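User: As part of a screening pipeline, I want to sanity-check one entry by hand. Below is the sequence and the SMILES for 2-oxoglutaric acid. Please return the complex as structure tokens so I can compare it with the automated output.
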Amino acid sequence: MTLTPDVDSVQDTYTRDGVVLLKNILSNHWLKKLRLAVDSEVQKGDRYFAYKNMREKSGTFQDYCLNSDVGQRVAEVADSPWTSLIYDQIFAKEPGTKTQTGWHTDQPYWPVAGPIMTIWIALDPVDADNGALEFIRGSHAWGAKYRPFKTDQLGAFTHYLEKDNPDYVDMPDFEKDREIYEIVHFDRMEPGDALAFDGMTVHSAMGNRTTTRRRRGYAIRFAVKGAIYEPRDEVTEWLHDSSLKPGAPFREGRFPVIFGS
Ligand SMILES: O=C(O)CCC(=O)C(=O)O
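Assistant: Here is the complex for your manual check:
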């Protein structure tokens, strides 16, 4: 049974815009469990996006990734016969975290080429006041590969990685030229709503300007049909897997197929 309402139009939007809103994908059971799991993780007091790959340890994150319906939802949105798991990450932008997360694309940071998708799940109501994500509509289809870069504790640009790799171009100043791009955000996400976005979609996140409203996001990165393993030394060595040959389908080994075959 298909889980995604109006799946054809969701697929069309995702293909055209590189991002689509999925309403209410979490049961109350998972919402409660994920909130608790996030809160216990962020007690470590690390920087706001440093909590990652929790799914490799047993516990709620692993249970959700392996045993919920999220893999099927990804396959439906991407129209793929299978979904494999790359890694997961918490983005807890707490009240008063005013810094805007710099514009970036995700895929250049990971050892993968081809179609990948993030599911970013809101665990609190999210709007423009407490840190909504912003996207440049259709940018995933531009064919541009933007150089990965390092950021400071709050997510602002510090310096580029892979400076000599000719496959990449420096990131334009999208913020300065906002008016020439089609920048979109979703006015209001409810807890349990999710954004599905392509690994090449240019995006950022607003600051949390409120003094009281938390903004906990739980993001999971997935590969789908057509994704291949492409390790590069300067980025995400922590995601390398020597059991996969470069160019092999991005599945198996550390990246289990969680839906389909
Ligand atoms: O949630 C955020 O603040 C940023 C999320 C993000 O950039 C991502 O999921 O790639």
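Points to compare against the pipeline: The first strand starts at residue 19 and ends at 22. The longest helix spans residues 28-42.
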